[in-house]
Design a protein that fits this description.
heterodimer; A: alpha/beta; 8 helices; 7 strands; globular; B: alpha/beta; five-stranded parallel beta sheet; 16 helices; binds iron/sulfur cluster
Chain lengths: 213, 473
């Protein structure tokens, strides 16, 4: 996983509540058995005017000119600003894969759906939860200033560059640690193998039916 | 000792280790897999040269991509017309064969939607932790299990370590007392709950459903309710273990037997919240006031009783909400204040992990028996949740009732719930669907989904538009 320390990038405002994972990446693209290549189909139904197919040449498809990520300079955005309950719906990790593939490394919203939030950290994307009010302010600034940039510093837990001044945010320690260092958490868990084995031995005595031969 | 909620008990029983930073390692008893969210996890495992920690906790079945016509199914994987879908189903087969994981393949009678298969096989048991790379894993909480969906990285993590790194959720109690009216089902209850707390109302919480309504409810009904906990934002939905649970589990293929059964049943007696347990949030509703529900918009919280009219954005004070309503009405092709019973339907879908169990099919069959699907309905599909549900339904003659009424009787799978196979809505088409998500495009590009109970979907199929199933027949 790519580490996340500091990021300065263009902020794309996506003014919509309850953006679901079906919207982030529609199901026909989930048929792929790979982790990459989802970027061109990020927000497919909002981004294009026709129906996307997994094998289509996306460069030939009609773009929806009203959609934010089709407009300059947002095609190069790396920070997505969204409304409440971002990422609700399915557990598909294809959603963060698609965001990442497009170039989004950070999503700022007043709230996130749990599974999506978790999936972001596994893929080097930083989801930041701010208050409704702060998000509202950022929306105002981002929509009135097209090239609006922010600098997100995970180490310091701080967003710089907004008119409302430095904005502090918090992320739980373990996730922060993994993200800062780009750590593979399977490796970390396997370092605790002894604990797992001890647990299994104890559990097997209590609940043998959970351990089929 | 402090009083505990059911969730606290399940959590504590699976805590392997707590790190200094507060993150917890939680042991997983059952891992269910399907073809969509597992290939990248198996690939990761291979690349890292790792092996599954325990083979026997894993159980797989293809469901999302499988075709549902008998003709396509009769030839197995080769019957999948879409080459990309076919590769995905084949990849699951290869991975399971390679690692020695049990898989109910396409032609196995036990194949079906993963959340129908787990409980049906007794592979999901009370007191277990159950995970699957699928958000509707909450379904299994109906058995008094701690069950939730995970992403693909976590699928790999569970395969490799049998554990997950978790943060404990907060406790929410949703208590629904009273007796449900005739024609009001588990689906109406859960839709009404989501309407009450909203799609993000349960975010960060594990929800326990309690009260008279759930005590009276069948296991199938409890599964329908827990299934949609995620639609209220909660990864986990649960119902305490009682006699209904134990009777349901008894004798199932993966359930313990003999001496171990007695031991298990004794242990399961504790799987309920202590009387004085404290919840972080409590929601109380009156079951006798719940009417059959219909979603009118593009989020499950956009739901109303069938007798209502769709909302008018002009009367909504909150700007973000008003624009959501406006956008939803435009997408759904509805007028503000239009009566829900005036919504004309094009297709009907009875199926999905929410409502494809035997009880759901019986309820739908009872409504359509002796009637004919309205001529304006292009297609009405009935897709059983598993091969065994299908067999049972056929033994009861339900397939004949559906076919006589003009509904199509299909092979088990996810089907039009998310339309990854050939079953989908056309642009602009309205569908009465027993599934769980009415998101834009969910059932097909430009498709318009209305979530309802099986009985309501069946009545709508006959009428061609929504009707109150309580007045039907
Ligand atoms: S039936 Fe629908 S919601 Fe359930 S697992 Fe299949 S696709 Fe997901």
């Amino acid at each position: 996983m790519q580490a996340f320390t500091q990021l300065t990038g263009i902020v794309a405002p996506l003014d919509r509540a309850n953006v679901d994972t079906d919207m982030i990446i529609p199901k026909q693209f989930l048929k792929s058995i790979k982790r990459s290549g989802f970027g061109p189909n990020l927000f497919d139904e909002l981004r294009y005017l026709d129906e996307g197919q997994p094998d289509a040449d996306n460069s030939q498809r009609p773009l929806n000119p009203d959609f934010i990520l089709n407009q300059e300079p947002y095609t190069k955005a790396s920070i997505l600003l969204a409304r409440e309950n971002f990422g609700c719906g399915s557990s598909r990790e294809h959603a963060p894969w698609a965001l990442l593939d497009f170039g989004i490394r950070c999503v700022i919203a007043p709230s996130f759906a749990d599974i999506f939030y978790n999936n972001c950290f596994k893929n080097g994307i930083l989801p930041i939860t701010l208050s409704e009010q702060q998000v509202d302010e950022l929306f105002k600034e981002a929509t009135s200033n097209k090239g609006f940039n922010l600098t997100v510093d995970l180490e310091a837990g701080c967003i710089k560059g907004a008119q409302l001044g430095d904005i502090n945010f918090s992320v739980d320690n373990f996730r922060r640690h993994c993200l800062l260092n780009g750590l593979d958490d399977i490796g970390l868990t396997l370092e605790q193998s002894d604990f797992i084995k001890q647990y299994e031995a104890k559990r097997k005595a209590q609940a043998p039916w959970l351990f089929a031969e | 000792m402090a009083a505990k909620t059911l969730y606290d008990k399940l959590w504590d029983a699976h805590l392997v280790h707590q790190q200094e930073d507060g993150s917890c390692l939680i042991y997983i008893d059952r891992h269910l897999l399907h073809e969509v969210t597992s290939p990248q996890a198996f690939e990761g495992l291979r690349i890292a040269g790792r092996k599954p920690w325990r083979i026997d906790t894993n159980l797989a079945t293809p469901d999302h991509n499988v075709p549902t016509t008998t003709q396509e199914r009769s030839v197995g994987v080769n019957g999948i017309a879409d080459p990309v879908s076919k590769i995905q189903v084949m990849t699951l087969g290869e991975n399971c064969d390679h690692f020695g994981i049990t898989e109910f393949k396409m032609q196995d009678a036990r194949q079906g939607i993963v959340h129908v298969v787990g409980p049906e096989q007794g592979a999901t048991l009370p007191g277990m932790t159950v995970v699957c790379g699928d958000s509707h894993t909450a379904t299994h909480g109906a058995l008094g299990a701690l069950a939730h969906g995970i992403g693909t990285s976590e699928v790999e993590h569970v395969l490799a370590t049998q554990c997950l790194i978790q943060k404990k959720s907060k406790n929410m109690l949703v208590k629904v007392d009273g007796v449900l009216g005739k024609g009001v089902t588990a689906k109406d209850v859960v839709l009404a709950i989501i309407g009450e707390i909203g799609t993000a109302g349960g975010t960060g919480y594990a929800i326990e459903f309690a009260g008279q309504v759930f005590a009276d409810m069948s296991m199938e009904g409890r599964m329908t309710v827990c299934n949609m906990a995620i639609e209220a934002g909660a990864r986990v939905g649960m119902v305490a273990v009682d006699k209904t649970t134990i009777d349901y589990v008894k004798g199932r293929p993966y359930a313990p037997q003999g001496e171990q059964w007695d031991m298990a049943v004794a242990a399961w007696q504790d799987l309920h919240s202590d009387a004085d347990a404290v919840f972080d949030q409590v929601v109380v509703m009156d079951g006798s006031k719940i009417a059959p529900q219909v979603t009118w918009g593009t989020s499950p919280e956009m739901v109303l009783p069938v007798s209502a009219q769709v909302p008018n954005p002009a009367t909504e004070q909150d700007q973000v909400k008003a624009s959501s309503i406006e956008r939803a009405l435009a997408y759904m092709g509805l007028q503000a204040e239009q009566a829900i019973t005036d919504i004309q339907l094009d297709r009907v879908f009875i199926g999905s992990c929410t409502n494809s169990r035997i009880e759901d099919l019986r309820a739908a069959a009872e409504v359509v028996a002796g009637h004919k699907v309205a001529t304006t309905i292009k297609q009405a599909l009935v897709v059983p949740g598993s091969g065994l549900v299908k067999q049972q339904a056929e033994a009861e003659g339900l397939d004949k009732i559906f076919e006589a009424a003009g509904l199509e009787w299909r092979e088990p799978g996810c089907s039009m719930c998310l339309a990854m196979n050939a079953d989908k809505l056309g642009t602009g088409e309205h569908c009465a669907s027993t599934s769980n998500r009415n998101f834009e495009g969910r059932q097909g590009f430009g498709g318009r989904t209305h979530l309802v109970s099986p009985a309501m979907a069946a009545a709508a199929a006959i009428a061609g538009h929504f009707v109150d199933v309580r007045d039907f027949g």
